[in-house]
Fold:
Amino acid sequence: MAQNPPNLRPDLAPKATRPADNRPGQPTIGMVSLGCPKALVDSERILTRLRAEGYGISPDYAGAEAVIVNTCGFLDSAKAESLEAIGEALSENGKVIVTGCLGAEPEYITGAHPKVMAVTGPHQYEEVLDAVHAAVPPAPDPFIDLMPASGVTLTPRHFSYLKISEGCNHKCKFCIIPDMRGRLASRPAHAVLREAEKLVDAGVKELLVISQDTSAYGTDIKFAEERGHRAHITDLARDLGALGAWVRLHYIYPYPHVRELIPLMADGLVLPYLDVPFQHAHPDTLKRMARPAHAERTLDRISEWRDICPEITLRSTFIVGYPGETEAEFQTLLDWMDEAQLDRVGCFQYENVEGARANDLPNHVAPEVKQERWDRFMEKAQSISEAKLAAKVGQRLEVIVDENDGEVATCRTKADAPEIDGNLFIDEGSQGLKPGDILTVEVDEATEYDLWGTPV
Structure:
């Protein structure tokens, strides 16, 4: 079966930037971080703990005394990539500790790579540290090994992922994430706020709120209030918005209470951006998926959100070729796209995942049909994106700079999340712009996914 395009795969992490200012004689650890941003946060927490214990972080295999591979197990293709990464680390370094989602299946890993030193599951930080201690004993120097208040980050300094909960209570038939990461476990709101404050104090300009189900934040702890902060997504978004950074919300299921977030966007407290995993539009397909949302209501909710905040950007992902998907069901999805007019869209061809209930469904779709439907879907999504971006020509937009090579500054508008959405490029007037700068530009040109502009 053809793999999903790399830029639409959930198992490819952003390129990591790792500190390399290690002292002589300092024990060093390397990190290979695969997976979604939630896994990237786990990698950051592990490295922060290691730095606090006196370990240095190596940006390459040669400089590391052991390597941690944080794996992804979301799709079979992701599992294959994780095994490949483990094999490469073993070949290049020899001392390898495996963690992450695929670590929930230790026999699967050791069957392919029996020489790994240890295997731990997702967010098992203490077990990872124990394995590192066994492989490379710590040798801290409290007079030299200083930790920044914000900890170690694997993203550029001007934006950071903020994980507010772990796990998921849904039982979608195509997904095994709840089996690997457990049921929903929300962090106390005051702890999230404290982390966010440290990040902003350290210079972070954009907070990307992530979890498996951001809309459900706090439901497991009955929206507990502690130290003046309530564990409810609306309250949390309002509190985060008061910190002065851009706040971007990911993985929002379209529950009715999401409406309460939209006025915060209209008021400028939170970026007018919602990442909503609709996955499909036909009610029978959604029923076979065991999805928690109802397609017949989503168009009404989208309309209501746009009435409250006309500038809102909606991003989503979809699955084509799900078992039992008929041509009529797929056409319903295309028609729904015409009505919904989503701004940013990703699409996956359905893959079997070992342990997922969808594997046992009847009437699996042939690979060539999945590819053909994916092509048609992406053609539709591209035409919508092209028209929406063309309408921005002549507008003035606020952007954040991600990088500047001296000739072209690569930026993002409020409608663009890092790595997964488009960019705005400045090729005239980019001199002196630095990552994290926020400025206003006038849009001069648009393509299917990207914009060009000039500072004003």
Notes: The chain has three domains: 10-135, 159-390, 396-455. The CA atoms of residues 404 and 410 lie 6 Å apart. Residues 1-20 have pLDDT under 50 and may be disordered. The chain is about 30% helix and 20% strand.
